[in-house]
Amino acid sequence: MAKEPDSLILELLRDMRSDMRVLRERSEEHSGELKKIRKEMHNWQETTSTGVGFAMHANVRLESVEERFDDLTKRIERLEKHS
User: What span, in angstroms and rounded, lies between the C-alpha atoms of 62 and 56?
Assistant: First the structure.
C-alpha cells in the first residue's frame, strides 16, 4: 500500500529536523572552538606585547648605559691629556 502524501511530508520534515539538530550541535561545537582560539590569540598578543615592551625597555636602558660609558670615556681621555 502506498504512503499517503501527508505521511511523506511528515517523514521529510522529521528528516529535516534531525539534520537541523546535527547542524546545530556542530555549530555549537565550532562556536566553542572559536572561543578557545580567540582566547589563545588574545593571550598570545598580550605575551608578544609584553615581550616587545621588555625588549624596548632593555634597548633604551642599553642606549643610556652606552651614552654614559661614552661620556665617562671622553672625560677620562681629557683628564689623561691634561695630566
Answer: 10
